[in-house]
Fold this sequence. Notes:
The complex is a heterodimer.
Chain A: H1 2-44, H2 53-58, E1 62-63, E2 70-71, H3 74-105, H4 108-121, H5 126-145, H6 153-177, H7 181-189, H8 194-205, H9 207-223, H10 226-231, H11 249-256, H12 265-294
Antiparallel strand pairs in A: 1-2
Chain B: E1 9-20, E2 23-34, E3 38-42, H1 49-55, E4 66-74, E5 77-78, H2 86-92, E6 93-96, H3 107-117, H4 123-136, H5 140-143, H6 156-169, E7 174-178, H7 186-199, E8 204-208, H8 212-218, E9 221-226, E10 229-235, H9 236-241, H10 246-252
Parallel strand pairs in B: 3-8, 3-9, 6-7, 7-8
Antiparallel strand pairs in B: 1-2, 1-4, 4-5, 9-10
Helix pairs in contact in B: 3-4, 3-6, 4-6, 6-7
Amino acid sequence: MKASQRSGQSRRRKEKSIRILFFAVASASILTLSLIIIFLFMEGVPIFEKVSLKEFILGKYWYPTYDPPEFGIFPLIVASLAVTAVASLISIPLGVMTAAYLAEIASSRLREIVKPIVELLAALPSVVIGFFGMVVVAPFLQNTFNLATGLNLFNAALMLAFMSVPTICSISEDAIFSVPKELKEASLALGATHWETIWRVIVPASISGISTAVILGMSRAMGETMVVLMVAGGAGMIPTSLFDPVRPLPASIAAEMAEAPFRGDHYSALFATGIVLFAFTLLFNLVADHVSNKYRQVGAATL
Amino acid sequence: MDADKGRAKKMVVKNLSFFYGGSKALTDVSLDFYANQVTALIGPSGCGKSTLLRCLNRMNDLIPYSRSEGQVLLDGESIYDPKVDVVSLRRRVGMVFQKPNPFPKTIFENVAYGLRVNGVKDRSTIEQKVEDTLKNAALWEEVKERLYDSALGLSGGQQQRLCIARALAVEPEVVLMDEPASALDPIATQKIEELIHHLKKCYTIIIVTHNMQQAARVSDVTAFFYLGKLIEAGVTDTIFTRPKLKQTEEYITGRFG
């Protein structure tokens, strides 16, 4: 009796200490994240003593090293959005259709081979993709379209599309694959063809997962730094054509941070640029979260 | 089967065997299904009754590494003939599943789905057909106020009747039902059974059931399966009161299975 009481006590103590340990680990990562965000704001906000938020966001000129400097990141925002949008136009159809093929059409053996390969694409370091864009795609674009430079919006979008296809494909594939087979059978039993079943039943039933995949893919493209730094061309102006060189937000931060005097205006402006970028990716993630909750996967009926 | 004399054979199964990979699920089954009759397939789990049902609209085609031997005829024509278009076969032989599986769409769209994939575009035709079918499935009164709500908001029994309506909307000739009431409560089950009784005027119905009383109540003909073989088939009254084989009697009276 006594022995079992003692072992009960020690078991409870052990449970308690494990709980505290896990709580500490979980809080550590949350705490670090919060500290980074606080730091971001502390370093970035001082620029708004020099320029107003409106001037900063809507200002058309980004000349941080001129005298007097101009801190308008509108061209950078447009560049980021344009690059992300064009990349999405390429990566969404590619990713979702690949996912539908793998989940619905490919034989299970082919699926087991191809899916890990697609996921492996995500493991390609972005600098490698950037390098590929620089030495292969850029000269090709330059010669084919007779451009001044092959390092431009289109090149960056193409490379970013490559980067987001694995994300979009992999998450969409999971969503499509998890549509209950009862729904698929119901559709086929009504005399729908395989294609009609995919298009009218399976895709709508997995739309929440697909949307999440798309938004996460876009968020990845938006925040990606190395690729746009290497292949976007770096011109801080509002693009007027698909083949104009651009300077997206992360590229600007990465390129200039080393030269900006510590705690100077330029330094603050770059941190403020980081805040704007953070706001965009946060927005994407919130939308993804909202969408995946709102159109939650609906399985076979429950009773 | 004296009671069935003179009735047309809607579907005929001849020496059908079915294999999942290396294992044999059906052995040499021969059975006739008569027009405008309800045929119940009974037997313990794994006896092959669901497999047989899914052979009748070639739903088993979806299972990799499966194959069949023997013949299944619909109005005298083989449905496993290479020339047969499986999509049009399934439009003639509809199916209702064990678990209610409405699409995550509105009630209206669930019923309209079969019409749409069959190429019906005219809005008023679809509306009329949806209303007629829901009335036919005894669901209209319960859902007419909320046709455009999600079908997933319906109760289990209503969902199953919606699934029946969905299958009826494309005007099949044969309706296959795979334990349609096994997931429902007694009242919902009763409604489904009344519906089956009412539907046999227009359709040939083949129903798999675990519930002996249900088979006795709804069917005209009963076929008893065991270990992939057809043991005995005949008029339901006869099977339940004077089965020829001891095995059938033992199963029906609950002594094994």
